[in-house]
Structure formats: C-alpha cells, structure tokens
Amino acid sequence: MHHFDLKDGALHAEGVPLELIADEVGTPAYVYSTATLKRHYGLLRAAADAHRDALGEALIAFAVKANSNLSVLATLAKLGSGADTVSEGEIRRALAAGVPSDRIIFSGVGKTDVEMAFAISVGVRQINVESGAELDRLIAVAAMMDASPAIAVRVNPNVGAGGHAKITTGGKGDKFGVPVEEAMDLYARASASPHVTPVGLACHIGSQITDLEPLKAAFEVLADMTRKLRAQGHAVTRLDLGGGLGVPYSGGTEPPSPAEYVAMAARVLNGLDVEAAFEPGRLLAANAGVLLSQVIQVNERSDGRRFLVLDAAMNDLMRPALYDAFHDIQPVNPREGGATAYDVVGPVCETGDTFARDRELPPLEAEDLIVFTGAGAYGAVMSSEYNSRPLIPEVLVDGDQWAVIRPRPTYEEMLDREPFADWL
Ligand SMILES: Cc1ncc(COP(=O)(O)O)c(C=O)c1O
Ligand SMILES: N[C@@H](CCCC[NH3+])C(=O)O
C-alpha cells in the first residue's frame, strides 16, 4: 500500500484523496497508482539488469490480461515494457499504447488463423506455439504470407503451481503447453520448416506463486532442453520464463521478492548464453490498484449476522467469488472504535456475491467509503455487466494529478449497444 496511504486521517492514492475521486467519478471505481506501477517495473528491471551476464538484455513483457487499460499499458510502455498478449485484441491494445511490435509476445492456447496472420503482419517479437496442431496451422498461415515468424515452443514442464487450482497452468493435466518429449520433436519439426523460425522455449506454470521451488524446477526443464536441442544442432537463443510470481495480498503468504526470483532464474540460466523474457502480470499491477466502493447499508439481522452491503459486487471484482481470493478492505476515512465482524457482500442476486465472511473491520456506516486493496490485476479486466450493472470507471493517479482512463458508461450507452431484432 506504499502509494495508497492515510494522510490527515484520509486514504489517498498518491497525492489525491480517494474521497475526491469518489465525489467526482462516483463509486464503485478502480483507482490505479502510477508510482506503484513504476516502482514494480523498476524493481524487476533493476534485478534483471543486475544479472545481464546470465539473462542477456532480458525483456519484461507485461501480461496485458492482468490490466489492459490503455493508460496503464502506456505508462508501462514508456518505461520500456513489452507486452505478453493472448488475443488480437490484446496485441491491438499493446500497439495502441505504444508498445513496439518487437516487444510483443503472442501466447495462448487457441490462436485463430486470423489472429496468427495479424500477429505476423504487425511483426510481433515471437509467437509462443502451444501445440502440434497450432504449429501446423501457423506454418500454413505463414506460408500463405511468405513469412517465417520467430516462434518459441511453450513447454508444459509438468510442474503446476499457483494460488488456486483454477490458476495453475503448468501441470500435466492443464491445457497449456507441450509435454517435454513432444516439445523436443516439435522444435525439430519447426526447425525443418522454412515458414517458422524457432528461437527458443517458453513456460508459464501458474499464477500467484509464492514459492521459488516450482519455478526453479520449470526453468531447469527449459535449461536442460536447451542443452539437448543445441546438441541436436538447433539454435535456442531465447527463454521465456513466463509470469506467475505472487504478490503480497495482506493476510496471505509472503512471496519471494522480485530480486530473489530473478537471482534464482539467473542461477539456472547461467552459462547458457540466452536472452530471457519475463511476463509478469500480477506482480506489476495487483498492488497498483484499489477498488473504491461505498457502503449502501449495514444489515443487522435478528439472528446476529451483520452484512456490510456495498455498491461494488462480484461483477466488478470477481476474484473472491471465483477463487475465494482475499482482498484487504480498508475504510477511506477511518472512524474511531473497535472492530466488528461483517459478511461483506454486493447487491448482485447470488450468494457467491460475497467478498468476505466474518471479516473484522473498523466501524462502518452507510455512505462510508472503503477500498479493496490488491485489485489492480485481474480486477477491471474480468468485470462484466451481470445484473445490468454498467462497467465501472477506471482512474489513474500520478502524484497530484488524476484522470478518468475509462469512463462509466451511461445507462443509455449500455442499452444502445443492443439493437432490437427488426421483427420486434
Ligand atoms: C503465458 C502467460 N504469461 C504471463 C501470465 C501472467 O501471469 P501473472 O499475472 O501470474 O504474472 C499469464 C497468466 O497467468 C500467462 O498465461
Ligand atoms: N485471473 C486470475 C489469474 C489468471 C492468470 C492468467 N493465466 C486471478 O485473478 O488470480
């Protein structure tokens, strides 16, 4: 919460009181801190630069899926960040935000021919191929375009990890990547084609990983494969180490620091003479954002349960409903008094619309403002208009200035998107 701090008894985003943003923009709203984005990118950049001998000129490619707002992407692009993308839409966002195409990696388990052709046409840095079937289609698409895009083979190292079963990606049964033996064959097959240029290997084993061991095991698989492929005469110049490093969500397991993580990667890659890429999403964005919300009312029931009913709901921040994720809740203008246990819920018509059960919180009343911390990654991007609740605005703060970087649609705009069938 470095850049979301109490000043004179009121929570600020950098130099801006959150109450001011709530007054002007309304609630709920996402609020992001430029200083935190810069700090997180800088920590990782410095760690990578300190290990240039082992990691080369490592690319940091922000995983756009974590927060795809154009101003957030532009903030990172200005720092030199690349982009890890999984759809044509994400590639277009990265380009629009000023990420040079040679810093864009195109990953994903199901790229359509149209998306692959688009990626080739704009000259992305590399396409991470995730299956034999995809390699065949990519070769066919590239042949039609008379191209030979750089590719990496995404390996499924059979090391799954992550904060929840639904966000583990590197286990044998997960849909991502190619098992090691098959990946070796795929690489040889790709090398034999004039229409793709294999440059390396990639992995990404899960998200919110708080232990270096599984990451190390996965990187060792890539290092070992690199040696074997080279022994077979193949060129391997890049290793894409994926994202996945966890962040501190208060109350949760403390993850290793970016410096420890990068040092571990450098130890594994040392002597291989490759250029590394990192694809952090959560690491850069999660703690750079809060979800600002207002208490609608407190329901004190005769059975003793106490519900804090907010104007934010599961459609705005899905992580608690989907992964039982913990997000700290803090009052924007804390009142004096002892803590009370609340069930914190939104107005959506589902019991799953529960942010927290029995959460001890300082005194709160109707119309008070609160924030959910750690909401800058996989927050706004995963939101929907369920229950016909319009998407909520996003605000970017930088020092004392702030801007609405995605406005709240009006109800008219929401309804106007749906033309009536002409027979109605
Ligand atoms: C290929 C790939 N790279 C990077 C990421 C970013 O992950 P994280 O936000 O955990 O760093 C993901 C999402 O998990 C991914 O699938
Ligand atoms: N959406 C997940 C992370 C998924 C990572 C993408 N592969 C979350 O909110 O934790």
TrEMBL record:
InterPro entries: Ala_racemase/Decarboxylase_C (IPR009006), DAP_deCOOHase_LysA (IPR002986), De-COase2_C (IPR022643), De-COase2_CS (IPR022657), De-COase2_N (IPR022644), De-COase2_pyr-phos_BS (IPR022653), Orn/DAP/Arg_de-COase (IPR000183), PLP-binding_barrel (IPR029066)
Enzyme class: lyase
Residue span, Orn/DAP/Arg decarboxylase 2 C-terminal domain: 30-376
Cofactor(s) this protein cannot do without: pyridoxal 5'-phosphate
Record PROSITE patterns: ODR_DC_2_1, ODR_DC_2_2
Alphabetized UniProt keyword annotations: Amino-acid biosynthesis, Decarboxylase, Lyase, Lysine biosynthesis, Pyridoxal phosphate
Binding site for substrate: R282, R319, Y323, E350, Y378
SUPFAM superfamilies: Alanine racemase C-terminal domain-like (SSF50621), PLP-binding barrel (SSF51419)
Reaction catalysed by this enzyme: meso-2,6-diaminopimelate + H(+) = L-lysine + CO2
Positions of post-translational N6-(pyridoxal phosphate)lysine modification: K65
MF GO annotations: diaminopimelate decarboxylase activity
Pathway: Amino-acid biosynthesis; L-lysine biosynthesis via DAP pathway; L-lysine from DL-2,6-diaminopimelate: step 1/1
Transmembrane segments: none
Subunit relationships: Homodimer.
PANTHER family noted in UniProt: DIAMINOPIMELATE DECARBOXYLASE, GROUP IV DECARBOXYLASE
Family according to the record: Belongs to the Orn/Lys/Arg decarboxylase class-II family. LysA subfamily.
Role according to the record: Specifically catalyzes the decarboxylation of meso-diaminopimelate (meso-DAP) to L-lysine.
Protein name from the UniProt record: Diaminopimelate decarboxylase
Native organism taxonomy: Bacteria, Pseudomonadati, Pseudomonadota, Alphaproteobacteria, Caulobacterales
